[in-house]
């Protein structure tokens, strides 16, 4: 692992201002243990702030409200990055979306290269939406628009 930086690099900032997915690591409010979930409603507001939209049916909302310390694992730029920060509620509920969501800002405290020494990612993982593509695009548009306005 390399030394940490206080904010996102230009390439990570650009990547996180477009649709991608990350692993959101929180402390489970019930068990007190670590938990990891893949999310795609993430947006880099700037080099020091990530904005997340989370469906209220997800345990992640309670987890982050009870323990705001989070790590986001990002695959890109030929490596894997661990972004540490503190989540704060930005908007609850998030207006302009068709179901109840909570919008969090993550104040970045450190960005670290988390890939083991001597390795490089050949390609970042990709995903495919397996439900109604038009409905997914419409919902994604609504959520990202609401997140940017929050």
UniProtKB/TrEMBL annotation:
Transmembrane segments: none
Domain Pyridoxamine 5'-phosphate oxidase N-terminal: 9-92
InterPro entries from the UniProt entry: Pyridox_Oxase_N, Split_barrel_FMN-bd
Superkingdom in the source lineage: Bacteria
One protein family per Pfam: PNPOx_N
Name of this protein: Pyridoxamine 5'-phosphate oxidase N-terminal domain-containing protein
Organism listed in the record: Paenibacillus stellifer
């Amino acid at each position: 692992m390399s030394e940490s930086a206080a904010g996102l690099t230009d390439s990570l900032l650009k990547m996180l201002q477009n649709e991608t997915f990350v692993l959101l690591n929180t402390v489970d409010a019930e068990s007190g243990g670590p938990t990891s979930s893949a999310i795609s409603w993430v947006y880099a507001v700037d080099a020091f702030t990530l904005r997340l939209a989370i469906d209220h049916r997800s345990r992640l909302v309670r987890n982050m409200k009870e323990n705001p310390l989070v790590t986001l694992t990002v695959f890109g730029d030929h490596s894997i990055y661990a972004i540490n920060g503190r989540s704060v509620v930005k908007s609850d509920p998030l207006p302009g979306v068709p179901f109840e969501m909570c919008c969090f800002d993550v104040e970045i405290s450190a960005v670290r290269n988390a890939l083991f020494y001597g390795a490089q990612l050949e390609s970042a993982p990709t995903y495919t939406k397996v439900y109604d593509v038009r409905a997914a695009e419409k919902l994604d548009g609504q959520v990202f628009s609401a997140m940017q306005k929050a």
